[in-house]
Amino acid sequence: MKIAIIGNGAQSLLNFRSTLMRLAVAEGHEVLAFAPDHSSASRQAVCALGAQPRDFSLSRSGLSPWSEALSLRSLHRQLSKDRPDAVLAYFIKPGIYGTIAARLAGIDRVVVLLEGLGFGFADEGAGRRRRLLGALIGKLLSFSLKHAAAVLVLNPDDREVLRSRAGLKEVENVGAIGVDLAQFPHKPQQVAGRMTFLMASRLIEEKGVYHFVEAARVFQEDPRARFVLLGGLDDNPSAITRQEVEGWRSAGLIEWPGQVGDVAERLAQCDVFVLPSFYREGVPRSIQEAMAIGRAVITTDSVGCRETVEDGVNGLLIKPRSSEALVAAIRSLLGEPERVSAMGRASRAMAERKFDAQVFDADLLRRLLGPRRSIQTLRGPHDHEQLNPAPEARRHR
User: Fold this and answer.
1) Any bridge partners for residue 152, and if so which?
2) What is the pTM of this model?
């Protein structure tokens, strides 16, 4: 069977879909990896997985009708040429255009995975432009995704939004996509001396970057705390500028290595992972990676983030958009190395139980193959369990 996987960037394909590509290839399927920005390095990495890179045109954040029409045309042409049996499109733009282009190309089986609804659906404090964008995205999702074989989201909040604002009734919450637990092995921590608080994310306002920096400012003279910010500059409308980040670094508030390739090693060197996000997350991959390594987590009681923390067990949930709440959480952990270590161990146990990519990928491949096909791969120790427990069962998953 020939499977096309359509993402919004080559790096996201490699970061988020490499385990799925490897599984599909191992099962004897031909895999096509679509991205708008393949480089020679990403092509080599895709080929090393046994898949084939494919190019198409896409602007991640552009809204020009002309460029969007070109994106749809480019994707339609390539799908018509390759004629895959099934398509997986993930993130909003690839989901919309991938579904329409596949339908025009005569491809019936399209699975759409929306890993967070993002900028256009952030309600609190949304201005007129954002509300209009959300309405437009809702209409496009309603028009395109009704033709998908399956529409999948990662948390119950997104499911309800798509049902109410896009009129999509057949939306399934499948829980987190998970991480490769072998790639992010447990590294027991020895908290000693200064405690390192690390944030890794896209550098946009909604991820809570300003709140992280404000907390760093409060503890700037405290020898017990160190603050590290990982992530490259972004092209989102609410992106943090280079001037801002360089200013924070020059003032000694944070360390900023930028975009790094050794994420697992960086996580292993921290004590507490922080993501004060008020973005419409799916289930943040960065938190899952930190949990797999075995780190305590401070994050917000907001969409997607709350799915990762049992408050007081593997971390702390704080009020969104509140620097004061973040400062209080950090202060409560300083001087408590045993508590931080215990939270880290609980994070690893939770990652093994809930965030194993092998379990998710096996289920996703089954959906792509369709009801009359099956795969040989074992689902692992959770075969007998429902992949995604009902949100009514407990609030924090």
Assistant:
1) 113, 172
2) 0.85
